[in-house]
Amino acid sequence: MTLATIFTFVFYLLILVTNVVVSVDYKSALTKSLLYYEAQRSGRLPANQRVQWRGDSGLNDGKDSGVDLVGGYYDAGDNVKFGFPMAFTITMLSWGVVDFGEHLGVTGERGNALAAIKWGTDYLIKAHPQPDVLYGQVGEGNADHQCWQRPEDMTTPRTSYRIDDQHPGADLAGETAAAFAAASMAFRNSDPTYSSRLLDNGKQVFNFARTHPGRYQDSITDAGQFYPSSGYEDELLWAAAWLEKASGDQTYTQYLNQASNIGGTRSMFSWDDKFVGAQTLVAKSLVEGRSSDGNLGQYKNNAEQFICNCVQKGSKNIGRTGRGLLWWNGFNNLQYTTAAVYIITTYADSLFKTKNTLNCTSGSVTPDSLLAFAKSQVDYILGSNPRSLSYMVGYGTNYPQRVHHRGASIVSIKRDSTPVSCQQGFSDWFNRDAPNPNVIEGAIVGGPDQSDNYDDSRGNYQQNEPATANTAPLVGPLAYFSA
């Protein structure tokens, strides 16, 4: 045996050892991804609640302001309801139903997807009691983070924060308008009356956003420490694109065409940066036969360049870990990966249906190649990685055990109803080395570092805290790959 042969043998052996390929059950992952949202529910839980370790919580939310703000979702591992990421979560869940509703139907998960959306939109309707009023947060971030308590035991202030005509927030209002419009499309066939109500809310909130520019954290300063917005132009485009799609009203087409800033080629898509989302909605419509009036063609060019960069065929390719996971930064990296996976999957679907290919700097890319890349990212998240670790909690047999999540890390109130005090949660539960007593199925944590390493410790919130915005973009692709 020659030295070259030995080298080749060792090389491929190392690949097998370090990149373990697992059999992926996309349908199981899809089911769990929607189950996760039941674990994040705030308010009075329904009779058909499947996550039984949770109980009612936040039943007085809004009372300080004389409004009913019971319901909605906790954003991540804490007990605050942040409206900005919540609305993005609802928009992405709705987009999954709009694009992949048939696939969700085949898998039997369409009803659960709509239930997850409605839990959010019912709350957003409450949060919008007047045309120029939108409540954007319940709970104080700093006070909440000083305690480690189950949501059922909360003793921290449940202060309600809002934007209005004197305290604007076009980004928060714009994202909420997008959520209303996208959800209206998701419910169009199953509940036309509710769909119409959502669309009316969306139009109203968009008008508020458009006529009252400004960043929402200047009005809701507490939110700026946790979910600061880099600007509001992207949310206005995102909302206009969804409202145009939902209503067919040319007013929104004109807004898209006349926008002076459509973002250029972005480096990411996230709860803060929606330019890629708006660009992709326009691009899909152009691929599917719409005429490219005005500057709509530039939306398509920018969206395609982003996708090319993700699949490593562009001029400014997105970074990757040593074993191929798309990489942005060390703080909750998977939120960007799942969002990019959605963009690639939905655009590939449009290209496939219209028999088109994507033209990148390094050559043309077929829809099949795009889908293969998207699937490789999903597979990595679900365990095809050097650690054979699923970054979706509860999926498979090897997943994070000490997730940074208050409710999951403390014994269920159904098993022990003794209240857990603010600091007691840290001493009795946070500092324990044992696995969490409750498995928060479907939650996607922050993920590995750039060297594919991961630390499963409760204090490692950068890598080990799940968030609603992490899982939402993956629901649609999981449905697509399941059916």
UniProtKB/TrEMBL annotation:
Keywords: Carbohydrate metabolism, Cellulose degradation, Glycosidase, Hydrolase, Polysaccharide degradation. GO terms for biological process: cellulose catabolic process. Its EC number is 3.2.1.4. The active site is at 404. GO terms for molecular function: cellulase activity. Residues 26-477 form the Glycoside hydrolase family domain. It catalyses: Endohydrolysis of (1->4)-beta-D-glucosidic linkages in cellulose, lichenin and cereal beta-D-glucans. Residues 459-469 have a biased composition (Polar residues). Residues 446-469 are annotated as: Disordered. It comes from the Eukaryota. The keyword Hydrolase applies. InterPro entries: 6-hairpin_glycosidase_sf, 6hp_glycosidase-like_sf, Glyco_hydro_9, Glyco_hydro_9_His_AS. It is an enzyme of class 3 (hydrolase). It holds the Pfam family Glyco_hydro_9. Belongs to the glycosyl hydrolase 9 (cellulase E) family. This is Endoglucanase. It comes from Oldenlandia corymbosa var. corymbosa.
